[in-house]
Amino acid sequence: MIKSLSAAAAAASVAVLTLAAPASAKNFKIAVGDSGGSSQEATGLGFVKALEELSGGKHTATLFLNGQLGSEQDTVNEAAIGTLDMSLLAINNITPFSPTVGVFTLPYVILSLEDAEKLTQGPIGQELTENTINDAGVRIIAWTYTGFRVLTNSKKPVKSVADLEGLVIRVPKNEIMIDTYKAWGISPTPMAWSETFAGLQTKVVDGQDNPYTTINAMKFYEVQKYVTNIRYIFSIEPLIISEQVFQELSPEDQEIVLEAGKAATAASAQFLRDKEAEIKQILLDKGMQIDDPENNEQEFIDLATAAVWPKFYESIGGVEKLNAVLVEIGRDPV
Ligand code: MLT
Question: Which atom number of ligand 1 is nearest to the Cα of residue 170?
């Protein structure tokens, strides 16, 4: 009797010990598509700082910059199967895996940083986060706001749609962006982000589009001369975590990761507000020529919205999804 009581007590204490044992410390591996000085890095550093503070130093994370861990689209696959913890990448590189996030890439939908913050941090951002978990096995835990994707090229100033003729423009492997350039009359070249600098340098392509902060961080001024301030996509770049990795965390650690994500989002918005004008000046100082499109960009806007929006209603989940976005940012529904 005594023996069996002791055995029960021993079993109970093992159980208590097991339950009380602290979950092991993590050093999350974060793939980052861009290099140092980018908005993505600002988000990543904000995440690392908050993670260490909120976990009392138990957890940390390491950034692997400049596509060291593979192309942005490849990192989604890696995270989905749990061989990579996290990735910081442009939302256009998630869309192929979770088409409803394409609503944030439709041309001329998001017209300011404030629009981007409102949409990503509200119910629509939450719904898209749930969709990426179900579709792609990755969870969005923070948002990077990188600014408008402006067009760069090495050959000539572009002020009108007609000026695009003769230019070979690299785009991500993203149908919405490919179709936008087609609406402007040229057939762009889809190319992975990790190959883009080399593509520009070797003149396989003449140009590309990305925000000022990215152009500067990636040193595109070394291989590009002309910038056109088109504002067709406000670039949003999520920090994603493998859903498998997230589910292996204790509830407390999940909460810490989500809170650190919110701090990273705030750090990203601050970075853009503090740095964008300064970085534009750096590009001018490096010798880039920056032009505005003619007629307030109206021709670019009209052609892109007329051809591209209807084509993608189905993939984003119906025209009502676009309308929900437009209404949320105070615009008229279609
Ligand atoms: C792309 O053009 O593929 C991305 O916007 C690159 C990036 O992540 O900055």
Answer: 2
